[in-house]
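Replying to the earlier thread about multi-chain prediction with a worked example.

Input:
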Amino acid sequence: MHIVVCVKQVPDATEVRIDPKTNTLVREGIPSIVNPYDLHAVEAAVLLREQWGGKVTVLSMGPPQAAEALQKCVGQGADEAILLTDRAFAGADTLATSYALAKAIETIAAKEPVDLVLTGRQAIDGDTGQVGPGIAARLGLPVLTYVCKIRSIDLTQRRLVAERLLEEGREVVESRLPALLTVVKEIAEPRYASLPSLLRAARYKVQAWNKDDIQADAQQLGLKGSPTVVGTIFSPPGRQAGPQLEGEPQAIAAQLVHELAARGIIGIQGPVGVSRFESITQRQSA
Amino acid sequence: MAEKFDAIVVGAGPAGITAAYTLAEAGAQVVLIERGEQPGTKNTMGGVLYRKMMDDIIPGFWEQAPLERHVIDQQWWLLSEEAAFSIGHRNLGHDQPPYNAFTVLRAKFDKWYAQQAVKKGALLITETVVTELLKDKQGRVIGIRTDRPEGDLLADVVVVSEGANSLVLEASGLKPMPRSETMAVAVKEVIALPREVIENRFHVSGNQGVVIEAFGNATLGMTGNGFVYTNKDSLSVGVGAMISDFVRRRIHPHQLLEHFKQHPAIAPLVAGGEVKEYLAHMIPEGGYETMPPLYGDGFLVCGDAAGMVIAVHREGSNLAMTSGRLAAQTIVEAKRDRDFSAHSLSRYWEKLNQSYVLQDLRQYRRTTPTIERNPQILGIYPSLLNEVMGQFLTVDGVPKREKEKRLLRLVTRRRPVTGLIKDAWRMGRAML
Amino acid sequence: MNQRAQAATVAERAPLGAGATTVDSGLPQVDVQKKLFTVRYKADKESHLAIRDPQICLACKDKPCLYFCPAEVYKWEEERITIAFEGCLECGTCRIGCPSHNISWRYPRGTNGVQYKFG
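Result:
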């Protein structure tokens, strides 16, 4: 089974702040990491390979230093790593990015058919979640987003059954293969890779592909192929601090119930008050 | 079966990266193991990098390395409550290549430096903790164990450059746990300020830099010092003292840092700055007497792990680099002779002995114990000096002869003549 | 000598009450959490620090770990030391400074712990 995982190198978003004066992202000193969701996708792919045999290829688009991110994925167990790096790719929005990645996957598949494409649910810098579905649309693949579990794979029937994590629950979906899955963290926890695997990654030379390697139409790449325009970036105004209740826990709890009920946030049946609440807590402590 | 290398280097700091770089350059198969996400992410120092020792390894490195400023001005401030007695040396000869020293931020510098070692052929493994040395039945070191699955690696020689917190050496029985009188803890902040502000406050232009070491009230008389170093668009401001002092005085290190930052001589330098990062690190200041064995069958010890710090001169990274280079050269020779015994690796000791490293460490062997045993040296003299200067420079109509008498009385009240002579003798013996 | 210095000298001699986490040393009070907020961490799930024998801490008069730790990882809460290992800067001071060597200390797993941005 051949699985392609699309990964992105991103600034560690937990560290990114917005300069309140200029409304631009402060990137200075911000380390680059593999988009966390993508690491879960790599782990899911490696687990599938360990079960079914085959190969995991990681694919990324970015500046030459994004090879670091791919090398990390090799350390996590990927077999091959390809970096699309070319000035022509620079400034791409999700449309141009999904075009370039789709062309690359076509190129990869021409040499070795691809059964499954995995991506993280979204990148933590742009947070669009569009690139995965964009690739699927261009390649004519069925797309399953927010996949939290792969239940079964049938390689002879070319079918896959997966669970999608939705707000109201889990949805079980069957799809034909090849398919594209965007995954959530629950799909698999990235392993603490073995030392031999890290040594392999340290020795591994990431393959660099340019726009000609994927036979891309220059008009659809990078800034030229990107209709998205970012207007402004700003921090939403901070929320005002709410009222703070002080006193004994029982009294506070009762007051809180009152406040919530008064605002219609909760409904209460039966008598409301300190006495009722006390009886509950007393029961619990007894 | 664990893979075998010519050499394994434990820890990507100045010593370890230098050893890996030098070994790889000589064609040895070397793997450099670092626990941080990248080399530098777990590394901290005040921030002064000396040119000479780095130049010995990568000639003209300042053309390409991520440096902050080149130092043209070094100052020593003796602080009392509200005064400072300062001496300094500004040298425009240090304003041009090859320069004398630079300020650096280690997260950037170490990452770059390790990349140079990788370009020479060293294998870099990050995010991996080395837990112990592997030994054969005869007790010879034959490799390392890491906390990774299948985490053993073998090598002819292991270079232990794990830093101040020498857990591997201790776990392998090569070093006792250091005493709190021999280890300092330093805290530091990287404080962002616009370039122009730094240029105005420190009277520099372009990439010129200033370093200030502060004593006395900077540490409330504890054995240690405070510092202010200029970076491109930030200051490195820190303070450090012996752990035993913090135990005795019941002061938080960060509280001492805040005290230092609020000192009337320091506050104007840092005013309006934004703290970008807060850091803490131990410094082995026990000196020569507390150094572990530096070589043995199949291993060498470099840098902070070896206790190679000369606290009074703020030197450490230079000793680390030189020791890493000499360790690598020793391994190259041992490889040529196919002999990795303690006897063969003792050439490392000889090389260190011929260099400034062990000569200086031996010269200053008494400094830290002397200062530690004589708290009056940092406790009394900085404030006394400031009192004397303050009175001497106050024009108040008192005849000079009378003033001199009063000052002498002031001094001898705080420290009798015999004590003064003893202190001078002690410090002379400790430093010269 | 101004007030600040006097207070420092007094505090030096003052005995430490059990359970106290700071001594009024006349020094500026510092909110270390604000400082730690500037630090980048990749938090481990389990603590790399542990108290070997809580009884020793009970009997420990000075509890210097409440002072010398630059991240104030250690707090005395209801008869025991609590460890906020997530804020640990991995300096190792507590390992050396604990008078009873009662702190079991290892580095966090390779991918975890403090990750300085500037250094």
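Chain C touches chain A through seven residues (CB under 8 Å).

Feel free to reuse this layout for your own posts.
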